Structure formats: C-alpha cells, structure tokens
Amino acid sequence: MKSNLKKYLLSGVMLGAAALTLAACGSGSDDKKASGSSDKTDVTLWITTDSKKFYTKVLEAFEKENPDINVKVVETEDAKAQENVKKDPSSAADVFALPHDQLGQLVDSGVIQEIPEKYADEIKSDQSETALVGATYKDKVYAFPYGIESQVLYYNKKMLSEDQVSSYENITKNATFGANLKAVDAYKIGPLFMSVGDKLFGDTGEDVKGTDWNNPAGVSVLQWIADQKDNSGFVNVGDDYISQFENEKIAAFESGPWDKEKAIEAVGEDNLGIAVYPKMTIGGNEVQQKAFLGVKLYAVNQAPADGDSKKIAADYKLASYLSSEAVQEAQFKDETRNIIPSNTTIQEADYVTNDELANAVVTMSGSDYSVVMPKIPEMTNFWTASAAVLSDTYNGKIKPDQYQAKLDQLVKDISGDK
C-alpha cells in the first residue's frame, strides 16, 4: 500500500482534487450519506487549527485506498486535546491529534486504550526510539507518533562562527546569549537539571518519587543560574527576544521550529545559523545541555464507537495511516506543516538531513541531547513549582545557603507530597 499512497500523496492530481475532498470531509458529509453512502463507516478526525488544507490532500489517498470509510475533519486546538476529549468522550472525535505529555492523563482516565499489537509492532519497527517512548505509557503503546519537536540554537552568523556555538562559554565570551531567567519558562530551563545527570520522575519519567534534583548537581544548577546575572555575555530577554536578535543585542537564543521564520525575518536567511544545543560548564564540569523532546501523536477514542468493532477498526486504520512514512514525508515537505518526522526512514532521507533545522531537531532527539518530556499526571505539579524556584534564584530571592532546602521542597512539590 505504501507505494500507492506515495503516488497519490505526491502527485499533482491531488491538488486538483483537494476542493472535492474538503467538501467530503467537511459539511458535505451529510450529502454523501444522502447519495447512498450509508454503508460507509464514518470517522471523525480532530486536527490542529489551520491544517485542514493539508489533511484534505492526504485524505484523498486514504479514501481511495479505503472507499468504505468516510472521514470528517474538524479543526481544534490540539494543545487542548485532553481537555476537549475528556469533557464527553462519547461525543468527541474518534481519532485526534495531541502532544505526548497528555497521554498519561488520558490513559489513567480510561479515555484511550492500548493499541492493537499489529500496530504497536509497526510503530516499534518504523518510528524512532524516542518517538516510541512518547507513545508508550506503563510499558504499553497507546498512540501513533507522527512527528517530533525540540528546541534548537538559533544564532547570527555575522556575530558567531559554527565552532563558537558548540560551547555556551564561547558564545558568551565572543558575543551574547539571550534567555529569560527573570520569569523562567520551565520547559526551556528545567532540562538544565537533566543536563547534569539528574532525573525528572526517574529513568522512565513515570516514577512519581523519582525526581532527584535535591543533590549536589542540582545545587550547582541553581548556582549556575545565579551566576548568569554577572555574566556580561548573558542578556535577559522576555517576549522581545526576536527584536533583540534583530537589533543584534543578542547573537544567539534557543527556541523551537515555530520561530524559524521569525528568525529569518530578523537577520536574513543567509545570516541565520541553526545548531544543536551547546555544551556548557556547570559545577566545574562540562556537560551537554539538554532540552525537552516532544512527540506529536494521534490517538483513538473508542467511546463514540460504543463497541462497534468495524468502526473501531476503521479508527485505528486511519490513525496508522496518518502516522505512516508516506504521510510523514508529505507533511515535512508541505510548507504549511513542515513537521519534523519521527519515522526513521524519513529522518535519514536527503531532504531531511540537508535541511539545517530538521537535521538539528533529529540530532537533538537523541538521548545525548534531550529527554522525552514525562507524561504522567504529576507533570502538572512541575511547571509552576520549578519555574518559581529558578526565577527566584536568578532574581536573588533565594540565596546560596538556601539552595538545598529549596530543592528539597521542590522535589516534594513536584511529586505531589504535602
């Protein structure tokens, strides 16, 4: 089936048929039923906002291969997938997109179930190891990966060389690095603890009592943060980081693929460099700075099927298709999507390895550079509690002799202990 999918996905015929498919996937679904499609199995798909045009194209191929399935596409905010599905699972989508860190709460609440073995085996065979981790909870596979996401280093080539950006110390000695330490975003700064070998919810990210930040390495992270206030090469930036980059007040910053176009506008495509995270010295030891890795998933909600095995089978078939090699190739090449693939074959393709951003993200997805963001429900404790400690350290509200006690309390807060 793979070759047929690629033929449909990548041919010019698809573009001409897009409008017809949009009608079929949208409000025209009632017309299809009226014209004799009552034997078809209807599957509702929730996708992220502003992506319907892309899905219109790729579903053309799916419906050609599966004429007995009718897909209705609805745009939603995938960051709110958990909230929207849990409100009323029986009236929610059959298949929906979500970030992997919501997986644990959806599984624990009974909304989604372990996927059939045949699909789990395909994921284990075709997807990257870290993508599989993102789709797995308590040793069972619950969802279908279709992309990965990590922050990278953006830098101005006029101010820094490729060699210089391999080290944080060289960046700040030769130019300037911008980040927000006054009002920390724990997504961006929290992984410093994993950079020094500490764990967040243990080795697997699923051990509630497994956070060990209250050790000497963790104390050294707080000291490093406090030291940045006196680092002439560090510039605290807020939401103005792109304008600071444009004005050359900062020569480098760390962000995700979503900022690539803004960075290009700021300094010009020829001047924009993209690299993996630099090494840095914390507590006297050189370590590789790490980031959180995000995995984009499709999950199946069986509640609307109400036990209808034919409909459930159609749901899984659609979810599998949307995470397939062919669709991942198409979504990477589509300028409106440009999602970094989780499929290992696509990751190794020339058009990915020759793309500076994609190559950096794929490299960052390795365990040397990133940690798959934990997906257990207790992650909700992590964001606010850790951000407050990190911000207060930089702002001088927490003194060095308080670091240990603050980390002891932070570990308790993260685990949910009172």
TrEMBL record:
The keyword Cell inner membrane does not apply. Residues 1-23 form the signal peptide. It comes from the Bacteria. PROSITE patterns: PROKAR_LIPOPROTEIN. Keywords: Signal, Transport. Gene3D superfamilies: Periplasmic binding protein-like II (3.40.190.10). InterPro entries: SBP (IPR006059). Belongs to the bacterial solute-binding protein 1 family. This is Extracellular solute-binding protein. It comes from Enterococcus pseudoavium.
